[in-house]
Design goal:
The chain has helices at residues 27-42, 65-68, 73-92, 108-115, 142-150, 152-161, 167-173, 185-197, 201-212, 219-227, 232-242, and strands at residues 3-8, 11-16, 48-53, 58-60, 97-101, 104-106, 118-122, 126-128, 164-166, 178-180. By secondary structure, the chain is an alpha/beta fold. Strands 1-2-3-5-7-10 form a six-stranded mixed β-sheet, sandwiched between helices. α1 links the parallel β2 (11-16) and β3. The longest helix has 20 residues, at 73-92. It is globular.
């Protein structure tokens, strides 16, 4: 198996495990990732997901070029559609997903990180969309997601130049939210995920959906806000606040 899932309390740690290939994404790995993410999405016992790569050199160094090299146009379209489907599942997963970027996150690896809700990077990480040097462009949603995060102009610059940037530049651009040392990356990321797991899953799901909506009138936010008053967690959270105690969320 090239995708490992470990469950710790309410946290799922998903590891892309092709260390000898720098965790490059081939068709088999994407299909396994699709299966695992689908299962995690249906598991209400899981409140947060962390995605990382095996080893210390790469998060995901890209799509598997050896597998891609001899693809024809039809096969390339199917491969792109598979990547879009899997990364769309991650983006729409009804719980937070954090990328722990432990090395190279290039091409398809950068696109995987972009599909996550938050990106925490090791100080040694390198990120970028270098596909232009291969005679292609990002094919797993990177053009749109990168532009949303860093702006159209900067996304254009990074994609057209194929430039790789370090973690500090990625932090400055807003491509990642935090950077950590090698000793800190996984412990700090898991601690953050544990913090999320203390909250109501319904509230986490609603927050993610509200942020993702493109509704300019914010009608969706109003609806999601109001819906949370129909369940027990809102009552528990507010009662706990007034009673100066920790809440015990049920949903």
């Amino acid at each position: 198996m090239s995708v490992r899932v470990e469950i710790e309390e309410a946290i799922a740690l998903v590891t892309i495990d092709r260390e000898q290939q720098l965790n490059a994404l081939n068709i088999e790995t994407l299909r396994q990732l699709e299966q695992e993410i689908t299962a995690l999405g249906m598991d209400n016992g899981i409140k947060a997901v962390v995605v990382t790569g095996a080893g210390s050199k790469a998060f995901v160094a890209g799509a598997d070029i050896a597998e891609m090299k001899d693809m024809n146009e039809e096969e390339a379209l199917e491969f792109s559609a598979l990547g879009h489907r899997v990364f769309g599942l991650i983006e729409s997963l009804p719980k937070p997903v954090i990328a722990a970027i432990n090395g190279y996150a290039l091409g398809g690896g950068c696109e995987l990180a972009l599909a996550c809700d938050l990106r925490f990077a090791g100080e040694w990480a390198k990120l970028g969309q270098p596909e232009i040097g291969l005679g292609i462009i990002p094919g797993f949603g990177g053009t749109r997601r990168l532009a949303r995060l860093v702006g159209t102009g900067k996304a254009m610059e990074l994609i057209l130049s194929g430039e790789r940037i370090d973690a500090q530049n990625a932090l400055r651009l807003g491509l990642v939210e935090r950077t950590y040392s090698a000793d800190e990356l996984m412990p700090k990321t898991m601690d953050f995920a544990r913090g999320l797991s203390k909250y109501s899953l319904k509230a986490l799901r609603a927050a993610k959906a509200a942020i993702a909506t493109e509704d300019p009138g914010l009608q969706k936010e109003q609806e999601l806000f109001a819906q949370l008053f129909s369940g027990p967690d809102q009552k528990e959270g507010m009662s706990a606040f007034l009673e100066r105690r920790l809440p015990l969320f049920k949903e």
